[in-house]
Predict the structure.
Amino acid sequence: MGEARFIKTLKEIPRSEQFAPGHRLCAGCGIPQVVRLALKAVPDPKVVVNATGCLEVATTIFPYTSWGVPWIHIAFENAAAVASGIESAFKVLEKKYGKRKPKVVVFGGDGGTFDIGFQALSGALERGHDLIYICYDNEAYMNTGIQRSGATPRGASTTTSPAGKVIPGKLERKKNLIEIAIAHGIPYAATMNPAFPVDMYNKLVKAATVKGPVVLHYFTPCPTGWYFDPSRSIEVARLAVQTRIWPLYEYENGKIRITVPVKEPKPVEDYFKLQGRFHSLLEPKNRWLLEEIKKDIEENWNRLLKLASQQ
Amino acid sequence: MKGKLVGMNGDRAVAFAAKQAEVDVISAYPITPQTIIVETLAEYVNNGELDAAFIPVESEHSALSAAIGASLSGARVFTATSSQGLALMWEILWIAAGLRTTIVMAMGNRALSPNINIHCSHDDAYAARDTGWLQFFAENVQEAYDLTLMAFRISEDHRVLFPSIVNLDGFILTHALEGLHVLEDEEVKRFLPKKQPVNPIDPEKPMTYGPLDLFDWYMEHKRLQYVSLEATRPVIKEVFEEYGELSGRSYSPVKTFNVEGAEVVLMVLGSSAGTVRYVSRRFAEKGKKVGVVSLTQYRPFPKRELREALKDASVVAVMDRSVSFGSPGAQLFMDVASTLLQAKRNPLLFDVIYGLGGRDFTPVDVEKIVSKAEEVLKKGEAPEEPLWVGVRGEE
């Protein structure tokens, strides 16, 4: 892949691929979209580091691989540390022996990013390594069978936060990954969503031009763990943006900009009712939780508007 | 003895060796008693004496993870740890070996918690014994320096391609100032040319490292790893010999002292070997023969050389600076027992536990072990329980 440029329409996305079909990701899974676009948008040479998770197990079942670029997986919690080692090594090898330094792209799920890999990510961001960290967030440990993570939203039922007779699902809020990342003083961070591929592609192109750590937080619809029809994956993803549940914005050198404005949000129930994981949330007896979640969404959106307008 | 004579503690000697090896990447986290090694390397880098990347990672887990990434990128990589740090790395130790990295790690041996203690036990070395790393034990500061240089050469040899641990007893060697002979930079360069990586990460030749490996292939890969590790034995010997010619200091996997015709033999790892040899020498002056066997190469375990070294022994006291709770014996004891059993040689064996958490180990303790060994010889029967020396409440 050569030099990438910003685009206005879907048709401008390059056709060549470095991610082969035949992998075992589920039908309707949101992960391949971000992988394919990232490999197109980040020019060669590049190296991919992958945390343990759905993407890793489904694309590299020995003796097969989907990856047309160097790809490395070590363990669950250390993708950012492995990337730090590769980036540092090539910096020295370039200086000492003239080897060309590749861009390091990391993929980690929400478990590998919000929870077990959190410390390694924080360390890598603080040290300022030149890398693009992409968190594909499907809001639970899907690979091990839908257990709750620090990224699971309130009201979602998972196998370790099941909707029960007394507790209706996960009650705790999701961590704000982008704000945590920004607090490290990194140059660029953004949210992405597969229903907005042009927005996503342009953010990836920008990320590739940045020197230093970048964190991209990608909304990853999961029909298997969220219980919806795989054919409605993009619809679910689009509704997440249109309801203001998943705002699309970017942070660049101290400034926040909403990249997909949502003037008139759709009712959040439209998003929840498509997914089995929120089934219990919509029952009348759990109305209190739904109301609290609505308040959270409104507050988050207003806070983001305030941050975006302050500059 | 060739080379310039200098005074350094073990940590500084190891750091100096890593500098002479012109490592490309150092990835490390502080932990006593290893810390001086990485502090010294950070000084070399920041003073422009060593052209390397120093990655000040946020944990030992990340130290080894970053080291793997760097090693597979083609760099010569060094790290260091001790005790709890090794324990935190443990998951990644296996991966560093299985992915055939050539990392060299110095380990300032320190007791594991609880209770927290910063002094010497061999718990950490033993904890890494099954992971696929090569392991060497230094007896003094000179050996810590020499073995660090040799470890790079051995690990990076294309017939090896496994990472190495160089063990040096915490405080006893890491912090003790000793005189040692160091090679000239040019000599090290000739002995240790630039690393020639095998299948490094290269965007021109994309490869997949660390894939999912299930029941249809995993077992073949483990067997291949086993066979490859076994095949390192002659290479280690070859490098020991070559380094011996270069430095005038001879190295072999197993070190023996007064073993010929000795009925009683003491086996030991690390710095205590000197104390045991000192007592053996004193006994020899009085006409009593006590053999001493120590291991420079701990993994792969030098089975054949050890059987040869113990061929005359009737009683072997195996000294362990660690406890393997609930096991039939401590870690070295079990290694020695199975090594001898395979050869159908059965001298009487007993286990000695000594020096835990830096407990002083003295010639008087050695004499106690020898008396016990003589008692075993006389009775013709070895005790089932280990002999604890230097501890309150000992017999």
About this structure: The mean pLDDT of chain B is 97. DSSP finds 13 helices and 16 strands in chain B. The two ends of chain B are 44 Å apart (CA to CA). Chain B touches chain A at residues 24-25, 27, 51-53, 55-59, 61-63, 65-75, 77, 91-92, 95, 99, 194, 201-204, 206-214, 217 (CB under 8 Å).
